[in-house]
Specification:
Elements lengths: L3 E7 L2 E6 L2 E6 L3 H12 L3 E5 L8 H14 L1 E3 L4 H20 L13 H18 L5 E5 L6 H8 L4 E5 L7 H4 L5 H8 L4 E4 L2 H15 L3 E2 L2 E4 L2 E7 L6 H8 L2 H11 L5 E8 L6 H14 L7 E8 L6 H21 L7 E4 L5 H10 L2 E4 L8 H9 L6 E5 L4 H4 L4 E3 L4 H13 L2 H17 L2 H14 L3 H8 L2 H14 L2 E7 L18 H11 L4 E6 L4 H8 L5 E4 L4 E3 L6 E3 L8 H14 L4 E4 L4 E4 L5 H18 L5 E5 L3 E6 L13 H6 E7 L3 H8 L5 E5 L8 E3 L2 H13 L15
Parallel strand pairs: 1-4, 1-6, 4-5, 6-7, 7-8, 8-11, 12-13, 12-15, 13-14, 15-16, 16-17, 18-19, 18-27, 19-20, 27-28, 28-29
Antiparallel strand pairs: 2-3, 9-10, 10-11, 20-21, 21-22, 23-24, 24-26, 25-26
The structure holds adenosine-5'-diphosphate-glucose (ADQ).
Adenosine-5'-diphosphate-glucose binds next to strand 12, strand 13 and helix 14.
């Protein structure tokens, strides 16, 4: 079994300094309980912050080190200042409200990103220092979005999982974040990214498509040389533990004490005091119910437990005052000498007291404005071993997806909530039991242990890095192969695609002109006496002539439809230009361009192309499908082919493709020539296919390919070409070509 490295912002302990030592208490929260078992079984480590920023004296520090080592916990030391910026400032001041759709809580100017980066880097250093090959790394939550990416740089072969405990917001909201790209890239360092619900996964996938331009399949994203899996893993609670606690006779006594003679029905709320949990509107809805149903006065009571949380964040201090004010107002307006409508407890309760309260409740109110999952709802269900009690649950809690038999409320609708609270109080016994039974089965089946096991199983199923590397034969292997072949031979034939291979894609084709670096690189390659360089592109002859006309290289425009020999500098077409198909196709392309903002038509000598790189992704893809359908009908009897490239559809005469530019390679030439072809597009597959098996074919970026090797992008292509410059062709002498590993 692999060792498990759990990485979360906090260690599952609370540390309090004592005279000459420290007291370490284990946390009992859902995450801590759920992960403790695999932590202990796997002989692994739990890496996180201890919660301490104050310096300990040497005996205290020694005591803490001993305690941590015994529990296999590793502290990531964070200074007071860094915690202020990373945790309170960026994580809880910016990410938390934004991911919960509460834009008004976000500061006018987003700051402390630097602290966020610094803390994630501190985590990466500690994890990398403790990592051993074969370990599984499981990173948790929004404080550590960058960590998977930082770890991937340090540990390219590690298996890394990431789970987000809070919602992933709609892409339209997420994209307001200035650092959106870096956060997404950070997450994509993982091999598996998990969410509580399919909606969060969908939002994340849309962000990847619209912000980073990745194409996402339902449960995976293909990156250059690597795949990232996406999954839904709704987190559960330790239902068995809650059930046994609830059945304890001591708890039964406490339940009776809370319920008294049963003449006052009890509604219960249990939350961290957080503005996402919907406490003020819940209080307003309770107040409204008392207004609408005066007969309930002195007959119902709301017990609201709120555990103090994030007390150093400004928004939470104001929020506390708001809740205090509302409780005071309701109690002042409705209370009598023998009845207080809202019983407010501002502290955390020990687990037995919590379970007693869950058991005593007639109605459990879980009404967050937005919540990743909400474990309180599940703890309530697990504790109701008596099979009774009503759960009122917000539509905007992740749990609603799994617990639809609850009474679902829109917490923003105060009047509607008041009606539903009333309905829950009045619900007949049979209905209460009928609704609770399926909830109980689900909460027990999909408990926290099942959650941990299914995530780790999915992560464990991902092929270990070595076999992934073999399957894709990445950049280091390509560089080694090129170096070796160059050393064995005495001439070099280089066949290079342009867009997406030598330069990155740009919004419009004319922006992708060669930069000075590239021009110098091509010139240097072309001036080697032993090298023959071919540039083969889908572009027009005029463009290639303008950009590369003065280089002594072969130019092939329009995928090889027209070529220029460096000796004669004459452009020669491969087939007759024209055809009756052009006019109607052009009309069709113009019409679709008018309907698709951001798309454009390119008219070439032989071919016509419709580019939709700048169009809205969804519309672009839909229109491209539509266009292909119409073109297929229109052109069924014509000697043309329709080619779907990278956000472009091209219509060109049949049989003219990049493969035809390959110069004759009789056996004697092949034996003495290193043939290297590099391209990123579907059209380059024709080139790869036309080359003999000895050729070194290299695909740039993701997607299916006939090529033998794959490298990740333009920068890596240029690096490989630079290596070629540094290495003389070997004339069979096997001259030292140090492949960069
Ligand atoms: P939280 O926002 O902390 O967690 P939640 O899932 O409800 O929210 O978990 C709270 C935990 O704290 C529960 O185990 C509960 O028993 C305990 N708790 C709350 N109030 C308490 C009180 N007054 N006294 C004692 N204990 C109290 C984040 C996300 C959630 C997601 C979890 C797990 O915000 O949406 O469900 O992570 O992924």
């Amino acid at each position: 079994m692999s060792r498990l490295l759990i990485v979360a912002n906090r260690l599952p302990i609370t540390v309090s300094p004592t005279e000459g030592g420290v007291e370490v208490q284990r946390s009992t929260g859902g995450l801590a309980t759920g992960l403790m078992r695999p932590h202990e079984n796997s002989d692994g480590l739990w890496i996180g912050w201890s919660g301490m920023t104050a310096a300990l004296d040497p005996p205290q520090q020694a005591a803490l080190d001993r305690e941590l080592a015994a529990l296999r916990l590793v502290n990531v030391p964070l200074s007071d200042d860094l915690v202020g910026r990373f945790y309170e400032g960026y994580s809880n001041g910016v990410l938390w409200p934004l991911f919960h759709y509460l834009l008004e809580q976000i500061p006018l100017q987003v700051s402390h990103w630097d602290g966020y980066v610094e803390a994630n880097e501190a985590f990466a250093e500690v994890v990398a220092a403790h990592y051993r090959p074969g370990d599984l790394i499981w990173v948790h939550d929004y404080q550590l979005f960058l960590l998977p990416g930082l770890l991937r740089e340090r540990l390219p072969d590690a298996r890394i999982g990431f789970f987000l405990h809070i919602p992933f917001p709609s892409e339209e909201l997420f994209r307001t974040l200035p650092s959106r790209d870096r956060l997404l890239r950070g997450m994509l360092g993982a091999d598996l990214v998990g969410f509580h619900t399919p909606a969060y996964l969908r939002h994340f996938a849309t962000s990847l498509t619209d912000i980073l331009g990745h194409s996402v399949e339902i449960d995976r994203v293909q990156l250059p040389g690597r795949e990232v899996r996406l999954g839904v893993f709704p987190m559960g609670v330790d239902a068995g533990a809650f059930a046994s606690l609830a059945a304890d006779s001591a708890i039964e006594g406490e339940v009776q004490a809370i319920r008294g003679d049963g003449s006052v029905r009890i509604l219960v709320g249990v939350d961290r005091l957080d503005y996402t949990k919907g406490i003020p509107r819940r209080l307003l809805a309770f107040e409204r119910m008392l207004e609408l149903h005066p007969e309930l006065r002195e007959r119902v009571r709301l017990v609201q437990v709120a555990v103090p949380s994030r007390t150093k964040v400004g928004a939470y201090q104001d929020f506390r005052a708001l809740v205090d004010g509302l409780v005071g107002r309701i109690n002042g307006a409705f209370g009598t000498a023998r009845w207080v409508p809202v019983h407010y407890i501002f502290r955390g309760l020990a687990e037995p007291d919590l379970v007693a309260l869950y058991r005593a409740a007639d109605v459990m109110l879980v009404t967050p404005l937005r919540d990743g999952m909400n474990l309180v709802a599940k703890e309530f269900v697990a504790s109701r071993t008596d099979g009774d009690g009503v759960l009122v649950l917000s539509e905007f809690a992740g749990a609603a997806w799994e617990l639809p038999e609850a009474i679902l409320v829109n917490p923003y609708d105060v009047d509607g909530s008041a009606d539903l609270f009333y309905r829950a109080l009045m619900m007949p016994r049979e209905e209460r039991r009928a609704r609770l039974a399926p909830l109980r089965t689900r909460v027990h089946t999909f408990d926290v242990h099942r959650w941990v096991a299914s995530f780790l199983e999915a992560l464990g199923e991902i092929a270990p890095a070595e076999s992934r590397a073999l399957a894709t034969a990445g950049a280091p292997a390509a560089r080694r192969a090129v170096a070796q072949r160059v050393a064995e031979t005495d001439s070099l034939l280089l066949l290079l695609d342009y867009d997406g291979t030598l330069v990155p894609f740009t919004p419009t084709p004319e922006l992708a002109r060669p930069d000075a670096d590239l021009a110098a690189l091509l010139r240097a390659l072309a001036s080697r006496p032993d090298a023959e360089l071919h540039l083969v592109s889908g572009r027009r002859q005029e463009t290639l002539e303008q950009w590369f006309g003065d280089l002594p290289i072969w130019l092939h425009a329009e995928h090889g439809f027209v070529s220029r020999d460096p000796a004669t500098r004459q452009w020669v077409p491969a087939a007759e230009v024209g055809g009756s198909w052009r006019e109607p196709v052009l009309a069709m392309l113009r019409e679709i361009t008018q309907r698709t903002p951001g798309s454009l038509v390119e008219v070439k000598a032989a071919a016509l192309a419709w580019h939709y790189r700048m169009a809205d992704q969804e519309t672009g893809a839909r229109r491209a499908n539509e266009l292909r359908l119409h073109l297929n009908q229109l052109l069924s009897n014509q000697p043309v082919e329709i080619l779907a490239g990278n956000r472009v559809i091209e219509i060109r005469p049949y049989g003219v493709h990049k493969g035809r530019i390959v110069p004759p390679l009789p056996p004697e030439r092949l034996a003495s020539t290193a043939v290297v072809a590099i391209g990123d597009d579907r059209t380059d597959e024709d080139l790869f296919g036309a080359l003999p098996p000895e050729a070194i074919t290299i695909k740039v970026g993701p997607g299916e390919t006939k090529a033998r090797f794959r490298i990740e992008g333009v920068a890596a292509v240029r690096q490989l070409l630079r290596t070629l410059l540094e290495t003389g062709v070997g004339a069979g002498a096997g001259r030292g070509v140090g492949a960069t590993p």
